[in-house]
Design brief:
Helix content is about 40%, strand content about 15%. With about 260 residues, the protein is of the alpha/beta class. It has a 7-stranded parallel beta sheet with strand order 3-2-1-4-5-6-7, sandwiched between helices. Strand 4, helix 4 and strand 5 form a beta-alpha-beta unit. The chain is globular.
Length: about 260
């Protein structure tokens, strides 16, 4: 990334809009882009994936994969297709970005709301990581780099300051209770992954992208998606052992979680 041609392959979930789409846009524009960029979305043929399809038609290293993060069969199929494209190489970087943030308050949230959000925002990244783990392990084994980095093998889970227990934003600014609880759980998933996969040489970090003007973040947000992603890519290029198992933000600062 900023450090050069280290990241040979990257997969981004939820890549047809918002932060996911912008990640793909900025990755393909790099002077030394990854050899493979896998962009996943639920419906590659739908109208909402048109911008992604237009990009893929101009960049042969960009491959769109159908992936529904709540459907294990869909995830396994995407992993097989990615593996075929990689032709024996591993996957350097998995960015679990897909997520939802429906309205919900302490008073209005229902069991169905909570479980639906948890399924997409926590179970989804867990299942996606399980499916792509063999390719991440392969990349780590093949790498000549010492230590942990995104150029070697990394799992990046896109989290939120809204899930922070140590520095909890007010309910007035962030009333979305099911989303917040799901991101707290995602932080713990990241921590568990970091403990388990360190011996495999896989970096595991959660990342808060800032409050971004997207469909999820709304127009009230502070940050443009372009600025957020520019920051994210810069941060990804600098991640190392000291960021393993923690939450960082788009500027590289540690987030109290």
């Amino acid at each position: 990334m900023a450090s050069g041609g280290n990241v040979q392959s990257v997969l981004v979930t939820g890549a047809n809009r918002g932060i996911g789409l912008e990640l793909v846009k900025q990755l393909v524009r790099k002077p030394n882009p990854p050899g493979w960029i896998f962009a996943t979305c639920r419906d590659p043929e739908g109208a909402r994936a048109q911008e992604l399809k237009n990009l893929a038609s101009k960049h042969p290293n960009l491959v769109i994969l159908q992936l529904e993060a709540t459907d294990p069969a869909s995830i396994q199929a995407a992993a097989k297709k990615a593996e075929a494209h990689l032709g024996g190489s591993g996957l350097n970087l998995l960015i679990n970005n897909a997520g939802v943030m429906p309205e919900s308050t302490l008073e209005s949230a229902t069991a169905a709301d909570m479980l639906a959000v948890y399924k997409i925002n926590v179970v989804g990244p867990m299942l996606v990581t399980q499916a792509f783990l063999p390719l991440l392990k392969k990349a780590a084994q093949e790498s000549t780099q010492t230590g942990l980095s995104c150029g070697k093998a990394a799992i990046i889970n896109v989290s939120s300051i809204g899930g922070s227990i140590g520095n909890t934003p007010s309910m007035a600014t962030f009333p979305v209770i099911s989303y917040r609880c799901s991101k707290t759980a995602l932080n713990m998933l990241t921590r568990c992954q970091s403990v388990r996969y360190k011996e495999d040489g896989i970096l595991c970090t959660a990342l808060h992208p800032g409050w971004v003007k997207t469909e999820l973040g709304t127009a009230k947000a502070e940050l443009t998606v372009e600025d957020s992603v520019q920051g994210i890519l810069k941060v990804l290029s600098t991640l190392s052992e000291k960021h393993h198992g923690i939450v960082v933000d788009w500027t590289g600062r540690n987030v109290q979680w």
